[in-house]
Amino acid sequence: MADDGASGGFAGRLGARVEASDDGSARITFEVTDEHLNPAGTLHGGVLATLVDTAMGTAVRSATGEDDVPATSQLTVTYLRPGTTGPLVVTGRLRTRGEHLTVCEAEVEQGGEAIGHAVATFALLHR
């Protein structure tokens, strides 16, 4: 992860920024622009799925060793209301950690309202 807070990989190319990551939690900020909208003029569901997956994966990495690599094995996203252009915040947190599987949860807020919720299971791969 870069020192400037930019997320790496695909989420970083979208513009996601890791604002905080510690002890099984992570906070990501994102500026929704017109290029992130679907034909209906609302935030594309795939962008939101990428953001929650990234926040939860970052939360897992903050609570595991450098040799543990979280790999998403299941992801469920609930879209609560349409997202629009402007800033949003994604908060991910580790809920339950087993030896090989970890369960996480994420909330997405925009303009003070919840627009999405996600639950994911991550397999912990060992390098």
Tell me about this structure:
Belongs to the thioesterase PaaI family. Residues 41-113 form the Thioesterase domain. GO terms for molecular function: hydrolase activity. Its EC number is 3.1.2.-. The mean pLDDT is 92. A six-stranded antiparallel β-sheet has the order 1-2-4-5-6-3, with helices on one face. It has helices spanning 9-14, 45-61; strands at 17-22, 25-32, 68-79, 86-97, 101-110, 113-126. It has a single domain, classed as Thiol Ester Dehydrase, Chain A, CATH 3.10.129. With 127 residues, the protein is α+β, with helices and mostly antiparallel strands. The protein is elongated, with a radius of gyration of 14 Å.
Summarize the model shown.
Belongs to the thioesterase PaaI family. The chain is α+β, with helices and mostly antiparallel strands and 127 residues long.
Highlighted features:
127 residues, Thiol Ester Dehydrase, Chain A, six-stranded antiparallel sheet, 49% strand, hydrolase activity, PAAI_dom
What does the radius of gyration come to?
A: 14 Å
Helix content: 10-25%
Low-confidence stretches: none
Per DSSP, the total helix count is 2
CATH architecture: Roll
Overall pLDDT level: 92
The CATH homologous superfamily: Hotdog Thioesterase
* Count of individual domains: 1
- How is the largest sheet built, in terms of strand order? 1-2-4-5-6-3
Classified by CATH, the class is Alpha Beta
Secondary-structure blueprint:
Layout: H1 9-14, E1 17-22, E2 25-32, H2 45-61, E3 68-79, E4 86-97, E5 101-110, E6 113-126
Antiparallel strand pairs: 1-2, 2-4, 3-6, 4-5, 5-6
Pfam families: 4HBT
GO molecular function: hydrolase activity
Enzyme class: hydrolase
